[in-house]
Design brief:
three-stranded antiparallel sheet; 3 strands
C-alpha cells in the first residue's frame, strides 16, 4: 500500500477529481470519479507519504500548465485527503501518466 493525496469532492460521498478527460465519469455533474484508479493523485516517486509541500508544488504545477487548469476551482470544490492505494492502482496510474 502506498499513501497518496487524492482530491475528494466536497459534499459528495466517495467521489474524487478525475485524472484527466479520459477518466471522467460522465454520469456525475462535475465528472468526479468513484474509484481511485481514475482519480488525480499526488504521488511521491519514492512512494513516501506526500505532505503539505508536495501539495503546494502540485498546485504550482497546475497553475503553470497551459491547459488553463483552475487551481482555485480545485481548492474551492475538493478537499485534499490522504488515502492508500494498492500496488495495482499505482501501476494503473503510472501507465496512464507514462512514468
Amino acid at each position: 500500500m502506498v499513501k497518496v493525496i487524492a482530491f475528494k469532492a466536497k459534499g459528495k460521498d466517495n467521489r474524487y477529481l478525475a485524472d484527466g478527460i479520459d477518466c471522467v465519469d460522465w454520469s456525475d455533474d462535475e465528472g468526479d470519479v468513484e474509484g481511485l484508479d481514475e482519480a488525480l493523485l499526488v504521488i511521491r516517486k519514492d512512494q513516501t507519504e506526500p505532505g503539505q509541500s508536495d501539495l503546494e508544488e502540485f498546485y504550482e504545477l497546475m497553475g503553470r500548465m497551459s491547459q488553463s487548469n483552475n487551481v482555485q476551482f480545485i481548492k474551492d470544490n475538493y478537499e485534499p485527503v490522504t488515502v492508500e492505494i494498492t500496488d495495482e492502482q499505482l501501476a494503473v496510474t503510472r501507465e496512464r501518466n507514462e512514468w
